[in-house]
Amino acid sequence: TRGGCPLKEIALANNPSVSSASLAALDGRLRVNRRADLVREAFAACVENGGRCSFRRRGLDDDDAFALASSLADADAARSLARVCVGMDLADNDIGPEGVRAIADAVRLGTSRSVVAVSVAGNPGGEIHPSKTPSTHARILHGCCAANLLRNAGEGEALKSVGDRALGDDGAEEVARYLSQEHGYSHRHRAIGLQHNDIGPRGARALAESLAGLPHLDEVAIYSNRIGVEGAKWLAGTVRSCRTLRVLDLGGNDIGDAGCIALAEAIVGHPSMEELHLDHNGIGMNGATGLLGAMQMTEDSRKGRGLRRVWLHGNDGVSEELNARVHAIAGRNAGAAGERPEQIPRDDLTALEAWEDDAALEAEGEAAAAGGGSLPGGFKETSTLFANRVAAAAAAAYRRWFPDHAANTRGAAIIAAIVAHERDASSPFDAPGHGDRLRVLSLGSGTKFMPREVAAAAAAGGARRWESVVHDSHAEVLARRAFLRMCYREILDIARETSTYKVAGAAAPWRLLEPVGHAGGFQMRPGITLHLYVSTAPCGSCSMPAMAGGASNPDASFAMRDVDDVTWNELWSGVAARHEAGVFAPSKPVTTVKGAAGRGEQAPAPGVVFARLRDAEKVPGVTLSCSDKISRWQALGIQGAMLSHLVPRPLAFSTVVVGRKFNPDRLRLGTCCALRGFASSAAALRVHPPAHCAALGTTVKLEGSAGAGERIERRERADAGDS
């Protein structure tokens, strides 16, 4: 038809006068109509959904892929997908190798430079069975999309990350082709992340040769791949050629002694190199000795900057004594460069209290500058103000406790902190300025977790080896780990009736816990609540794209307003009732795990996928996402199983405060509201019901060289090491 809706299906059964040739011609015409309609549907979906469209489980074949690829390649057409498409989900269809290759070619041609994600998982041409690893054409497609993401990332010091995209060697070569050929874009890059991408020696060679030509390259993160000895040698050449490179992260790449020695030779007298990550690399005494010798040569010659930070943990063959010598040289280099962290007065309680008071005063000023809305009568006492106070307290603690890390972080740091809020029992008001106090109890910064290969090796080494390695170093997990250490220390101090600090004419130190009667264990003191701050949305369900996995409902009441955007007095009461009345939650919550890529637009976050619970627990190399870990803490207690024998009542967060990528609906669904189905079973299991936590966003800016009170304006931008 011309104009109107073209016919896509015609039934002509039991018409013996219609020849087979006529039927074939008609079917061909209808197929053309269906392909044209598919392209129109994709165009409309992209316009409506911010450049993204999904055709998951639609039975698409190669002809459908050819139609979509043709539209992506034709930028001149008025309704071309090249004009509007950013991401496309084609998972779980019947697209073969030729169809996947056609889409990859369309993206590679340069007419579809806005396309940064295409999922072809679950297609015959997208996966290799039975392992379900991405096919060669799929990896090339992922590489083309990654190149587009880098091309569109713009300038700046923040890490431009294309990690967790299942690039492999073929995809890495596509990224390398972009870096070496499109100088108008690639020469702007200063920091590039390629972590968790299954890159081997061939891909490492291509990347090394292209990275060496970037004139302003400052940092390369290529950890948790499989570049091996040969890849390390190629990247050592990059270090020699690139005189601006300061940071190289090659953790978890099995480079061994030979790879370590090649890198050590490259850093001798280097004018810029100051940070080298070689953790979990199978390095022994020979490799570590070579690194130590290179650092000593640089120090003795007084030529070059000298390494100031070196990561060697996870290499069982390196002795503690040799590790200490490496870190001693790094410390001297840092000291010579003027990096002298502020000393925390741990042994003088009076000085410590004064130091913490200064940090609290700094935080309150930062929160006030960031704002917090206003209420009738001019009172600035809202949930946003409280969120800003929590965030500012965490930021002040980060800058004071870790000044070296804060000064050297490029772009956006991933920070998590557990903060205690204590009301003044003598004040009749629960409001800021009436004697309440925020204390940062623990803090963590990190984005790494154990690669599957390292986890498998640790599991094969037996229970002792498995328990001796760190599995997850995401910021939220590190903050919780430090919190547990604080609780154990407090319990030990109370049991000994002494203090961790040497009291210098002052009262007993502040404590979170108190004993409960005779042999009743311990509990959190009255008037104290716990709050979790995370500088970017936790990985997993809290940061999933809208409508992903069927966990969102556009008709639910929470779509109309943020149920936790309330006044200060309302913030502390009725959280569960607000969530039960105004938040839609799926009847069967899904689990999300880290360390799996390639699921495209339906993935809950970069490098995270949905999984069955039995596939997420106690499997080497599989780690629950931070969202699921927070939801578990809300149900079973932050203190965990062992500490629950001493602190039987679950400790839970009253609020979760998020900076970048804050979406209140996803945050609630990813933490406390994901446990709605478990609440009905709590009584039967004789456990406490899950605790709801208010989902709050903050306008306090943490990253880079931001000053106090700067506001977060753009929440959805790329940041360093998406967690």
Termini separation comes to: 50 Å
- Poorly predicted spans: 373-380, 501-506, 546-561, 597-607, 704-723
Strand sequence of the main sheet, in spatial order?
6-7-8-9-10-11
Number of helices: 24
Q: State the shape.
A: globular
- pLDDT average, as an integer? 77
Give the total of beta strands: 23
Structural summary, described in words:
48% of the residues are buried. This protein is α/β, with parallel strands linked by helices and 723 residues long. The chain has 24 helices and 23 strands. Helices cover 40% and strands 12% of the residues. The two termini are 50 Å apart. The C terminus is likely disordered. The strands form seven sheets. Strands 6-7-8-9-10-11 form a six-stranded parallel beta sheet. A five-stranded mixed beta sheet has the order 13-12-18-22-23, with helices on both faces. Strands 1-2-3 form a three-stranded parallel beta sheet.
Protein topology:
Elements: H1 20-48, E1 52-54, H2 62-73, H3 81-84, E2 87-89, H4 97-108, E3 117-119, E4 127-128, E5 133-134, H5 136-151, E6 160-161, H6 168-181, H7 183-186, E7 191-193, H8 201-211, E8 219-221, H9 228-241, E9 247-249, H10 256-267, E10 275-277, H11 285-301, E11 309-311, H12 320-336, H13 349-370, H14 383-401, H15 403-408, E12 415-422, E13 437-445, E14 447-449, H16 452-460, H17 463-468, E15 472-474, H18 475-496, E16 513-515, E17 522-524, E18 528-536, H19 568-571, H20 575-582, E19 591-594, E20 608-611, E21 623-624, H21 626-636, H22 640-643, E22 653-660, H23 664-670, H24 676-682, E23 694-697
Parallel strand pairs: 1-2, 2-3, 6-7, 7-8, 8-9, 9-10, 10-11, 18-22, 22-23
Antiparallel strand pairs: 4-5, 12-13, 12-18, 14-15, 16-17, 19-20, 19-21
Helix pairs in contact: 1-2, 2-4, 4-5, 5-6, 6-8, 8-9, 9-10, 10-11, 11-12, 13-14
